[in-house]
Amino acid sequence: MSVRVFLSYAHDDDPHRAAVRELWYFLRRNGIDARCDMDTAQRREWTRWMEHELARVDFVLVIASPAYRSRAEHGARNGSGNGVEYEAALIREMLYADRERWFPRILPVLLPGRAATEVPAFLLPTSSTVYRVDSFTVPGAEQLLRHLTGQQEEPAPALGPVPRLGPRTAPAATAPVGAGPPVQVYAAAPLEVLIGALARLPITQSPMTRAHFTGMIVERLGEPLDIDPSAAPVDYLRALLTALAARPGGMLAVAEVVQQLHSDRPDDVEILGELVYRDEPFGR
């Protein structure tokens, strides 16, 4: 059974009426039972004819034009446009009475050369779909034809099975406010590798900076360290790491200080492997 469509339009001028006539012919040539007031084979009582047609259609096409919007929103002037004013009132009534049914079936249509600003405001031309007819051909009216005939351009793909996902690893505990940047946990590394990595950092390059480095660690650790910062860098670092590895939280303290001072040098910090979870002292 063919789709029945009513064309609601205003007689702006002869070119506009001719364009509506082309749309009417085009739809009927393509299997759409389009109805409009140009079929005047018999005398009609127009208000009753409008009511009769709108009560039996599947879709209403509101053909946008300046006169249609003006008469739909402000009424007819000087006795001209009474039919559009009446049709628009009936269409609004259909939307108000059953919006769920009629909103997808009352379609604002733009013929060539028309703009969305000519669509009546009650059809929401800015926030809803407007159907453009670029030419009276199947490609030029494809959007409208697809909607009228229920032929989707991009059907939704079939649903596949839901993937089974294992649990994620719990996140590390959040550091207290003011405790500095979070500490990253690295893979294990031998003592000599850690010493070599620390020896490349600026903070370990002079007795003065090594003393400062030791002080920052002591502050976090909460207990003194008997480490000589004037010793050779490698000897200083070996003594420091050995002492810290023997204390609970010692390696965590050095990790925090290193990451705070050298977060902009990830390649140097990455190799500082076992900085958090080593409990036994390093061997020599």
UniProtKB/TrEMBL annotation:
Domain SEFIR, residue spans: 2-140
Classification via SUPFAM superfamilies: Toll/Interleukin receptor TIR domain
InterPro entries given in the database record: EAD2, SEFIR_dom, TIR_dom, Toll_tir_struct_dom_sf
Gene3D superfamilies: Toll/interleukin-1 receptor homology (TIR) domain
Single GO BP term: signal transduction
Regions that span the bilayer: none
Annotated protein name in UniProt: TIR domain-containing protein
Species in which this protein is naturally found: Actinoplanes teichomyceticus
